Here is the input.
Amino acid sequence: MSVINKMLRDLDKRQQQPGQQPAATAAAQMPSSGIGLWWLVIIMVALLLAVIVAFAWQLNSDKPVLQPQVNSAQPASPELEPTAAVNDGTAATATALYSVTPAVSPQNSPTVPAEVVDDDRQLQTEPTSTSAELNTLEVRSEAEQPPIIEKTTTPTVAAEQSPQVSQSTESPKSEQMSVEQVQLSPNELAEKKYQAALDSLQKERPDSAEQLFKDALALNPEHIQARSRLAALWYGRGNGGEALQVLARGVALLPQQPDWRLLQARIQRALSDDNAALASLQQVSVAVAQMPDVFILRATLAQQLGQYQQALQDYQRLHQWQPDDARWLLGAGVASEYLEQPDSALSYYQRGLAARELSQSLQQFMQQRVQQLEEQGE
Here is the structure.
């Protein structure tokens, strides 16, 4: 650029010195001065372009090719291949590293590792104005080639393993999709509520148990244990009237249910309503072996209320169930005396004295009754 500026300055000096040339020569050159000036400008522009092209070619020829061909979909341009600035071995290695493109589509091409990109950016930002620095860059590129080989092979391994990872992550989803939900029936849900209520009772949470018993009965009004437990819970809190209402609603559904009838009679007797208790038990039709407590309580209530025939029948059934128990023979003998059947009463007392496991008080009572009946018979 300094040569061109010098030529321009000389030209200006020549044009500013008209006295040094003959008048005829100046007159002869005046017609062609405009044309010569344009040719001079064209020559200078051509020289300038030639200098720029030569300088750019020098830079491109001295700079080593260090950037990999990241775009795997387009073929590498010949202008980007290694040139004579590096030796033959370095050029062959660089070509093998950066010109090999994986045979995959652009969407599935492996991503260049971040370490390789950082090294390339660092090399691009370094100055390249002197040959010494270029040599340093060439040495660095040769020294970093082995790690680059390891880094470029890493995405290939990751690409091969990625389908296996996706299969392993999709397998739990398929298993979850195959799980079928089983809808429970109202009776099954009621049973679950009942079990939860029992657990609440064990944990001393009666309020929670009460609500769970109610939920169970809402799902299955004929749940025997849930209704019995709820009535007993309310009676234990001193709310006998509410307990009887719960049992009454159950008896309306199942009039012959012995558990509800027995609990109803016990609460009624505890509330001093013996007549209602006996009436509740008289509606029960069950075998003595299945519900002996019904017969025991009914016989006791009948004898206290003067219904000796009912008491005698129940004691006779209990004696048939347990022949060796003297209590049933004693009860039958007392009922027979009130029914004015002394012979039957004497027979029951005598058989009771022969029974085993007889307490001393019962033995004394029956001996007195045997002695008195025998005296009356004489």
Remarks:
- Residues 19-31, 65-174 have pLDDT under 50 and may be disordered.
- The chain is about 70% helix and 0% strand.
- The domain at 288-378 is CATH 1.25.40.10 (Serine Threonine Protein Phosphatase 5, Tetratricopeptide repeat).
- The two ends are 166 Å apart (CA to CA).
